[in-house]
Design goal:
Helix content: 25-40%
Strand order of the largest sheet: 1-2-3
Number of helices: 1
Radius of gyration: 13 Å
Structural class: alpha+beta
Number of strands: 3
Number of domains: 1
Distance between the termini: 22 Å
Shape: elongated
Largest sheet: 3 strands, antiparallel
Order of helices and strands: EEEH
Strand content: 15-25%
């Protein structure tokens, strides 16, 4: 399970990030919007890592199993 951390910025925007995926962060007008955007970005980063043979974060490394 990947954790999302979010907080409100001084300017009122919300920022959400996935600490297990460095650089995966997103802003939104609401906390829910920021979290939805960061989830979508995290999935794109995970797909890119899979396509390029890069390791996944340990939190989800076992999500796939060859049959």
């Amino acid at each position: 399970m990947l954790k999302i951390e979010s907080e409100r910025e001084e300017d009122g925007r919300w920022i959400a990030e996935v600490p297990a995926l460095p650089g995966v962060l997103s802003y939104g007008a609401t906390e829910a919007e920021a979290q939805a955007k960061v989830k979508a970005l995290a999935l794109r980063v995970i797909a890119d890592r899979l396509e390029n043979g890069e390791p996944l974060p340990r939190e989800i490394a076992g999500v796939f199993e060859a049959a």
